[in-house]
């Protein structure tokens, strides 16, 4: 089969299964200079690297391919994420980590934001805001007492200098945070920004944890207005690198595990797309999308499908011999 990946053909959402061999892997590698990887589900799962992923990642780097890890994880800073990646065996620098929390901080800096931020989310958002000189309130750990809810709301402290509400994954989400965020957002001048809108992420077979999208949707429902979303699938997360020419879309491959975030992101950016079956979406999901009559779902169909990233590894080694 001819795997010459022309831009014209690729962005029709082919969903072709790649059965690696020396010939088609060579053709695949000749089509791009840069690879943007999703993290969890592609390179690692929670705190463990997926089998062969680090060797494949590093072998591709050794062949001269530029690499970025693009993640919607907003609980950790890019510095901490790069340390995690290095610990798991991936050769990547801090400036090659693209996170939704970092993108949110850049969005605020580009707007010359000079007030305080109320965060519904994790430490990663706070750390990234601090790196660009933006103050935020301490992460809210208060809880609501059921028998005195109205009284407690009346006594809540609201900082008059808060000019934005930032929402991401928050494992300690509660009524206090939802209430404070919605009250701050009653002022139409208060910015509403979100790291990402991932609905859920797997923690085990048939076990999923609600994602940041659940938190965002809850606050949006009360605030009655949508946020600006900074992470995938928004191209904003890497738009600065495309403007600078560091990433050239027509020479870039997006490798993801989730169709509605990673593959949609690749489509939005004009990248080639490869879905691996080690995370959220499966080949069955690809086939369902291809059969769907929904008008925009084709944007989430990958150009190619591969069961796991490490399936490429034997053919990378053969190129180096």
UniProtKB/TrEMBL annotation:
InterPro entries xrefs: HAD-like_sf (IPR036412), HAD-SF_hydro_IIA (IPR006357), HAD_sf (IPR023214), PGP_euk (IPR006349)
Keyword Magnesium belongs to the record: yes
Cofactor binding mode and count: Divalent metal ions. Mg(2+) is the most effective.
Active site (UniProt): 40
Cofactor section: Mg(2+)
Binding site for substrate: 232
Molecular function as annotated in GO: metal ion binding; phosphatase activity
Binding residue positions for Mg(2+): 40, 257
Keyword Metal-binding recorded: yes
This protein's UniProt keywords: Hydrolase, Magnesium, Metal-binding
One CC-aspect GO term: cytoplasm
Coiled coil: none
Pfam family, any one: Hydrolase_6
Family designation: Belongs to the HAD-like hydrolase superfamily.
PANTHER family for the chain: 4-NITROPHENYLPHOSPHATASE-RELATED (PTHR19288), FI11325P-RELATED (PTHR19288:SF93)
Protein name as it appears in the record: Phosphoglycolate phosphatase 2
Organism: Drosophila madeirensis (Fruit fly)
Organism lineage string: Eukaryota, Metazoa, Ecdysozoa, Arthropoda, Hexapoda
